[in-house]
Design goal:
Elements lengths: L17 E7 L7 E11 L2 H4 L10 E10 L5 E11 L5 E12 L5 E2 L4 E12 L5 E8 L3 E8 L2 E10 L8 E12 L1 E15 L5 H4 L9 E5 L2 E8 L2 E6 L4 E8 L2 E8 L15 E9 L5 E6 L8 E7 L3
Parallel strand pairs: 1-8
Antiparallel strand pairs: 1-11, 2-6, 2-12, 3-4, 4-5, 5-7, 7-10, 8-9, 8-11, 11-12, 13-14, 13-20, 14-15, 15-16, 16-17, 17-18, 18-19, 19-20
Length: 312
Amino acid sequence: MSSPVAIRFRALALALGMVAVAASTGGAAAEGHWRYRDTAFSPSEAELQTLGKTPGRIDEKHVSGGFQAEFSGQGAMELFFKNDDIDRRVYLSRLTFTYGASAPMLVLVPGDTIEVEVSVSFRSNFAGAEGRGAVAVDNGDYIAAVSVGDGQQSARGSFKVPSGGPGGTLRYIASAYIGAYGGFSETMTNSYEWVDGVPPTPDQATPGAAGGFGGRWTTSEGEVDLVQSGSSVSGTYSQDNGRLSGEVVGGRLAGYWAEDGSSARCATERMGSFYWGRIDWALSGDGNGFEGGWSYCDQPVSGSWRGTRLAQ
């Protein structure tokens, strides 16, 4: 490897897992549609490992999940919360928050109605603990709400896609909350941007519909061969017995590279090697190119990694 790499929640939303939609536009309404751009967690997994730590006390928080905009419009978050009280009693809480739509959500057309179902599955050994979830549109007008002390609960609702205009942005927000001995709140923001013109057909909307990231690529790190099965991607490249593995979410491939040797040795092993890092690639609209980056180990992605699909 070469050298590296609006919605305002109401007060109740702080104690609820929710799916919300908020749009802002940079101009007057115009013919067009919303196109999915990216997904981000707040706080991120890395931030959770440094925020709010008390020396000598147990305080573990973890989050994982993703959003499948182009395949199913489904998203999920898993939260893990472990802490102790002053008497050293240890409490464990796990929450899984899922949300699904009635159609793929790579492209949202103003005026369309989207059916949404949310589900919260929650377990905790803290008496009185609770996991919550809700669905909201625009300024937080609730369509459905879920609250469960132990077990699973679901709710359904719908929202109408708002209009937009040039420079507009829209956020499809999923949040989850654990209320136990202390609290743990997490937000997943799925961002959209306004695109002028007639919305594409479903086949046109899905990036690389013929195969996604699968195929042979010429890239800034040499030739890359990728195989995609559903949302899972694996592959190889010529440099130092390079291999790749990741998941596709919303036209983006996020995962890892590994080699037999590189400029930095990681503290832990991945894919059978101590020489690895992250990748984050975005597929072009026609599916014939990607732009993205890479990093060493678990560092943030920064270095450039670009590719162009080779003719079959």
